[in-house]
Amino acid sequence: MADFFRFDNLTWPEVANLPRDTPLLLPLGTGYPEPDIEKQLASPTQIGLLPPFPFGWTGSGLEVPLPVLGAYLKNLLNSLREEGFSRVYALTPPGFYLGMGDSQIQCQVSGVGYQVSAPDTLIPNSAREKVIILPIGHTEQHALHLPLSVDTLIIEAIANGAVQAAPGIGYTLPATPYGVSTHRNSFAGTMNAGGRAFEDFWLAVIDTLVARGFDRFYLMSGHGGNVSFLVNVVKYAGDKHKRIFCATAWLHTSGSTGVAALEKYRQSPIGGMGHACELETSMILALRPDLVHMDRVKDDVDFITTPNYYMDWVEGGSLVANPPWDDDSRYGAYGAGSLGTAEKGQIWLDAAIAEKVEHIREIHEQHRRREERRRAGYGNWAGK
User: Fold this and answer.
1) Domain segments of the chain: what residues?
2) Rounded to whole angstroms, how far apart are CA atoms 313 and 337?
3) Residue 137 burial (CB count, 10 A)
4) Which of 146, 135, 340 is nearest to 251 (CA)?
5) Confidence at residue 118, expressed as pLDDT on a 0 to 100 scale
6) pLDDT exceeds 80 at position 79
7) How large is the greatest C-alpha to C-alpha distance in the chain, in angstroms?
8) What torsion, rounded to 10 degrees, do the Cα atoms 8, 181, 263, 365 define?
């Protein structure tokens, strides 16, 4: 009987040590029976399950054009092939064809993969007056002591916390666990959806939701590599759909509320918070302490710093660049993970949630006031 394991629970050295013929499956949705999977793979000793892709296909409750979804998934699977993994597959519901040939395995059992019967199951029509939150994390290395799932776990908790704190104004989709990493080759286990495929997918998601009558969106990222591409999505969407308000922000815990909490409780100086750092380690200690290996932590605080280019969670100087991680990180971190504590993590999660609630309220306010002007015929809106 095969041993099924969660790929995103591993650290990057554990991924580096996996046999390269280990089957790795990226499921579309959930609910796949393990015996069916094992049979199709000819009963290997172990099978790695990547985090499920939450929507995008027919029957998922939020469909995008097949070529758009396919490009996203192919880039993710190719990330693993570039690391030498030879048995990499998309696991799909029965009857759904990606056109990926041997890279696709279809479950033979119906009723899996978030199969739904109505288009408003994932997002009900009753949520049309709310801000639709699109939390986007990532599956990437987080140094020696944290799992690949850090960015997804954090942004999922923040999005859910924001909706719980203000249930009448926001509605969150399931977190998407895959984004963009241009430093993919430096450390094992890091996926990459590719910038253009990423932008095309999220613009298609907005297109689909706008066609259903939704008009307020918050693309909420837990991974820094996503942000510049999400800015492009926001620009494209705002130009294409004149009556919506679509916004994003630089990560989380980075506005006035979050920064105040960071400054009050952080122990590391500038350079101690960037990636797998005091902040992210603390948050995962608060959320999933079972996935943290504090006995393995190694701080990486040797970033090559100049007056206009340096690294910290909310500070980086005026220069924008993308040198290889290998220049500044020995272990896959930027910062001092050794200073992480669960107590600080909960404080910072609470601050991040409060900050996101402020953003959601502001998106509502922006949309309301702009619609009032439009209906009043302001400027070029006269007669429209």
Assistant:
1) 1-112, 256-314+329-346
2) 13
3) 26
4) 135
5) 57
6) yes
7) 69
8) -100
